[in-house]
User: Fold this.
Amino acid sequence: MPWPDRPEIAFSGRSNVGKSAMINKLLNRKSLARTSSSPGKTATVNFYNIGFCRFADLPGYGYAKVPRKEKLRWAELVEGYFASQRDMRLVVQIIDARRAPAKDDVDMVGFLHAQNIPFILAASKCDKLNVSDRRTQTKVLQDFCRCQNAEFLFFSSLTGEGVQQLRKKILSVCRG
Ligand SMILES: Nc1nc2c(ncn2[C@@H]2O[C@H](COP(=O)(O)OP(=O)(O)OP(=O)(O)O)[C@@H](O)[C@H]2O)c(=O)[nH]1
Ligand SMILES: [Mg+2]
Assistant:
């Protein structure tokens, strides 16, 4: 793990939810972080130094087909990452905009709460929502965030929706 010499932003969520694609979009790069249509692509914590801060791309959780031993290894990696002394400014907790938060998302958010780690919820792949689904999902996510006392935004690595909003948030937590 790199020395914690600068503010850090971590990207967390289920496998295939679009964590690596989000990092590329935020940094305006095509394939800095490796993405894949098959879940389980990011199998370790990948760090990206971007001058004033560092991004950490976490392995995704919740993919049923990953062998149990591998799941445990990933869980240890992520727990080890959060347990280490880092200048953690924000976790971007990503969920698929088309779905309600799954049990493991709720558990992850509970963990962030319990550890007092600031987080924002990003609903990814929002380009896949039609107008009526978007209305429904807005309500679902608003309710979830109200309970968790968290902010949320829609994000799409395809259309760029949410990019400026998230960049602004990252800049503000890094300056703070
Ligand atoms: N339509 C659409 N597809 C997306 C978006 N973001 C990611 N994808 C696609 O979803 C798939 C998974 O994206 P990744 O960024 O690799 O997902 P990940 O969360 O890093 O996955 P793991 O590393 O396996 O945990 C890829 O095929 C991406 O092209 C998005 O905003 N819209
Ligand atoms: Mg990934």
